[in-house]
Amino acid sequence: MQANNTQKWEQITNFVELNFDKKPDLNAILFLIGIRELGELPSTKFKKEEKVNLMHIAICRLFSLSGYYELEGKDKDGWPHWKLIKTLPNFSIFEQETFIRQHIIEYFEQEEII
Questions:
Q1: What is the distance, to the nearest Å, from the Cα of residue 59 to the centroid of all Cα atoms in its chain?
Q2: Given this model, what pLDDT does residue 40 score?
Q3: By the 8 A CB rule, do 72 and 81 touch?
Q4: Contact 34, 58 (CB under 8 A)
């Protein structure tokens, strides 16, 4: 990641840590984006499958910024459903993480969180 993006990533992790008293990893940030995109907190804890779905929602939302996914709508429970509209590139693990981080930075900027 470029120096500027490294600083922005630190700004994001510091923001999350300030609000949740714990330094987040990539998965924690994806989980929080998923909750934000869902738009509501349940009255009970999320089940394991729901946590995975929240992270998927986050990835789809993030990659929609680059035209890879498109929101199809929400189901009867209010969960968003996304459609893949462009094939994702084949990346190494390191490249995948960088790609995700760049999209998280863009998301936080567009949503005016940072």
A1: 5
A2: 79
A3: yes
A4: yes
Longest Cα–Cα distance in the chain: 43
pLDDT exceeds 70 at position 58:
yes
pTM above 0.70, yes or no: yes
- What are the start-end ranges of the H helices in 21-81? 26-38, 48-64
Q: How far apart are CA 107 and CA 14, in angstroms?
A: 16
In the numeric block, the tokens 């939302």 are attached to 61
Q: Of 20, 17, 22, 26, give the one whose Cα is nearest residue 98.
A: 26
Average pLDDT over residues 17-40: 94
SS3 annotation, 74-98? ECCCCCEEEEECCCCCCCCHHHHHH
pLDDT of residue 1: 61
**CA 75 – CA 1 distance, rounded (Å):** 36
Tokens of 24: 């987040």
Q: For tokens 């987040």, name the residue.
A: 24
Three-point CA angle 52, 20, 18, nearest 5°: 135
